[in-house]
Amino acid sequence: MNAKNTLESALCFPDPAQAVSAVAERIGSIIQFSVRARGRASLLLPGGRTPIPVFHALRDQDLPWNQVYISLTDERRCPPDHSDSNARLIQEELLVGPAANAHFYPLHREGVDERADEAVCSAALGMLPRPYDAVMLGMGTDGHTASLFPQTDGLAKLLDLQTEARCATTTAPTAPQARITLTLATLLHSRWIGLHVTGQEKWHTLETAIESEDVLSYPVLALLTQRQVPVHVYWSP
User: Fold this and answer.
1) Cα-based distances in Å from 96 to 55, 84, 93, 234
2) If we measure between CA atoms, which residue out of 25, 5, 21 comes closest to residue 231?
3) In terms of CB atoms within 10 Å, which end of the chain has fewer, N or C?
4) Which residue range forms the structural domain that includes residue 102?
5) Whole-prediction pTM value?
6) Which helix (H) or strand (E) holds 118?
7) pLDDT tens per residue across span 17-72
């Protein structure tokens, strides 16, 4: 995949609300199609603040939620009721009303060591139909996506498309909190991938990543240059 072409074909919207609506409508249509075609749909969703409006727009749709299977792209290794928990975010911002009927599988279990937590993560992912029907991702201003952070120990392995690991524990140098993240190979086991970013600074990050040609400094570049699954970029100021 040519990363420059991916950016040139990005869906750019004049305001965030339009981008949110487009992402939510696309994921909703994927759910409807997948349930009709296969009897169920599977989603991987990010944490953070940017996707919250998408979650709200998605939960308001009339969808067959009891046939939807959801997990995360990454998680902080914190208690499930912690304010930083992505699982808590999903439960509070998406799994409300009819959407509460969806099947949700958190990646982290409190009180286990790193190896056991990776096993928990792998088991959670094993509950979702694969390939995943949709993977939604965000990106930080440093070029990280999921919890694939620049220059972290073991990053090359996490980005290796030949790895057999579904997920791994990691700690970001710029955000020193223990995390668990899906590998790039796992994220790519999907029929559709959307990258939702907002703000001029993040657009500049995408441009800089492409110019750098350095996936270890800008992990999002590995997503944009892989050839397995097209990446659809949704951007608004």
Assistant:
1) 10, 19, 7, 25
2) 5
3) C
4) 3-236
5) 0.96
6) helix 114-125
7) 999 999 999 999 999 999 999 999 999 999 999 999 999 999 999 999 999 999 99
